[in-house]
Amino acid sequence: MARAGLTPQRVTIAGAELADEVGLDKVTMSQVARRLGVKDASLYAHVRNLEDLRGRIALLAADEKTIRIAEATSGRAGKDALVAFADAWREYAHEHPGRYAATQTRIRIDPDLAAAAPGPRRAVELTYGMLRGYGLTEPDLTDAVRLLRSTFHGFVALEAAGGFAHERSPQRSWVRTLDALHTLLEHWPTSREGDSA
What we know:
Layout: H1 8-22, H2 29-36, H3 40-43, H4 50-73, H5 78-95, H6 97-103, H7 111-116, H8 118-132, H9 140-160, H10 170-186
């Protein structure tokens, strides 16, 4: 029988909080149970296993990050939208490292949960919408989305790992990186012949 007050959402939030504190890869069902003051077995009435919990954390984080980006970019276009988008992404990664890691890790997610979650779909819409402001169309849109994701994730991952040991501050490099991305997006190279796939 499920413990009163315990829900899949509460278990997910407890797991997400723990992931931010100790790292996603160090979260165990036993730790989550202790955090909630229940026995391990009580959790299995709400989540199937650790993989299911990680998938739920990933969907929660995708929703949270997308809401933050949507609020930051609302009413903005061009470079203002790009900077607001990127800053919201980076701030979320700094504030919620475990949850953020869940959004960047290959995790098997229940198809029904994934289909019902608005975050991932909304994230795609926001990203493509911002890039359409630069006049991009397919297949350049997809290539630009991959470039932005690679740049943002690469930067925050290196930053989190202490990979920027140079005396120049990461923040200054971040600002210049966004300047460079804006310039590139405004002057996107012409697609090559046969490059439609």
